[in-house]
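Milestone M4 deliverable, item 7.
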Amino acid sequence: MKNIFAVFLMVLVCSCLSNRKTSETKAVIEKPEITEEAIKTSMEYLASDELEGRATGSEGLEKAAVFIENYLKSNDIKPYFETYRDSFKVNDLDGYNIVGMVEGNDPKLKNEFVILGGHYDHIGIQKTVEGDSIANGANDDASGTVAAMELGRYFAKSKTNKRSLLITLYDAEELGLKGAANLAERLKGENFDAYTMINFEMIGVARAESEAMAYMSGYERSNFAETLNSYADEEIIGFFPKAKAMNLFFRSDNFPFYKALDIPAHAISTFDFTNFDYYHHVEDEADKMDYAHMAHFIKKMIPALEGMMNAPTKDVLLKEEAVIEDE
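Output delivered:
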């Protein structure tokens, strides 16, 4: 009888341990979801009339900054500096980037950083059109801001990144890339080990089905696009001739990082001048965004980023022939 009881007890204990192990494994491998609803909620606030177009130095810009700070804090994205703010001056205006960090899980590789960003300022109050004077800046660039925030949340929760992530939301892009320039120079002064930088610029609308999902400025300056596509196992990032013709590489927040840190730094966009008519317009509203597309794009970026952040060596490299040209 004692032997039977002992066997029963052993089976029970093994069963409990097995169930516990299964539960723990499940908890480890569960990944946070990227949802249209969450994206829409953030977009509707950042592009709301309450924020009055998020002009640098305005009350609306301050509200946007507080919203982003609270988002980062609530999703376990820590400040990189003493606080989330990287403050600077633009003439007599106070500007501030918001900077958060997701530490990598590899003892060595965590000292190398991948920078993700987008600008959260816009152009504020403009000429009235049909009773509306607020340039809400949903596509430009609340969409890119939210993409960087969502990706930061994903990696903070999933902990699947060996290298560290810097989540950077820039002020004063509309005044000449001032926020990005300030942060890039500050990091340079601290001997920051930057690997690459991606600037999400206007990803709120989908391209035609015949085109690649997104394009990258400065496509030929590095092997960034082909490397990301190989990690994703499909073409997410394509070449867009108009980006080169319009010198978009020099006109967005990627450029100060390329210039100061000498790293592959590019803007990724899905706005191609044919699929949205309201650039710098009061009709750039949250209700015109394609949230299914945004969620799909962000999800597609995850394996591409994981491949880059977890590779044993720095696979993304500047091409030798790439040189900084005059703006």
